[in-house]
């Protein structure tokens, strides 16, 4: 298929100072007066990946946001070497702007050049929609646009919250391809998802093991 | 950091002036200006075409209209960016909330202050203001609009995420902007040049404090 051609001529993970590393020790998160999880420790070196698993409502998104620095950790600390890129349910692209221009805003902040936007769009098979305003994209297309934003970010550490939501089979394969390239280039991927992800050789972190006993029943 | 500030301001201006498709209602800067002109237009209808009365009170009407016009853009300044996840993305990139608020203030002022000052020329004509009065009004607006923009951003940050935040925004802005109104309209009284100095001082204070408060509000709003 034409889409496969787009992947192969994609781009390699480059641009960030190699040697990304992420280490968390004893992370706990308190929200609304309840401990969501506690004692979460993880250590990732360049090229490694982590799949945070667990059912909805357990606190996977909160863990991602704590690592990203958007939520304060109730206990523990996050040590990161390298910049982070966050992909959650919010696309963060201006709805009225054409896709390439909306991505251009982040590319400018992250120090990427114009040509890389086209490459990143091609890698998620959106090159033909570069001039279409973001508000006209479908859910799956928005999600792929978000992946393009991540791959443009030049960040060493990718934090992906449910990256496969809303993607069809072909797009999940592209996601796997992007994550693999990022890791080959020395990047780190932390992905939280209740569903299987195309992340070969990734560590898994079943978040349910770190949930206080009193809450364990809620997740059902 | 300066480069990032420029990029953020660039986006604010693109959205405000509706360039490249325009997101928050294309060319959102037009509405407050039309509102401002509308107030100046209906005032003579209400009090009658008495040139002397208009000349005496018109300057004050321009100031009231400017204050009311500054309320209109508040609801689109911060809320949309929180909803879209733009703020989260800035913070992940290490940009401080204060820098974000400063960029929004500068961007908002550029799309609000100069157009309002242009529209004030038309208003002054409609309200029978002399050239000398117009000059004082323009100097006053040049001093006050940065503070009005900064107040707008701060209140937008404070009310982001609240239901009926837009209505609340107007109620919050007016009392805070009263010093600007008093000194601005007061400077039009013949022989009271100190009004402009006090206006400049009040405006400077608000313009410096508001982005800091707005940054704190954005941070607190993130849960």
TrEMBL record, chain B:
Q: Where in the cell is it found?
A: Cell inner membrane
Q: Where are the transmembrane segments?
A: 27-46, 53-74, 106-127, 139-160, 166-184, 196-218
What GO terms are given for molecular function?
heme transmembrane transporter activity
**Membrane topology, record value:** Multi-pass membrane protein
Q: What does this protein do?
A: Required for the export of heme to the periplasm for the biogenesis of c-type cytochromes.
| Similarity field | Belongs to the CcmB/CycW/HelB family.
The Gene Ontology biological process annotation of the record reads: cytochrome c biosynthetic process; cytochrome complex assembly
Query: According to its record, what are the GO cellular component terms?
Result: plasma membrane
Q: Which UniProt keywords apply?
A: Cell inner membrane, Cell membrane, Cytochrome c-type biogenesis, Membrane, Transmembrane, Transmembrane helix, Transport
What is the name listed in the Swiss-Prot or TrEMBL entry for this protein? Heme exporter protein B
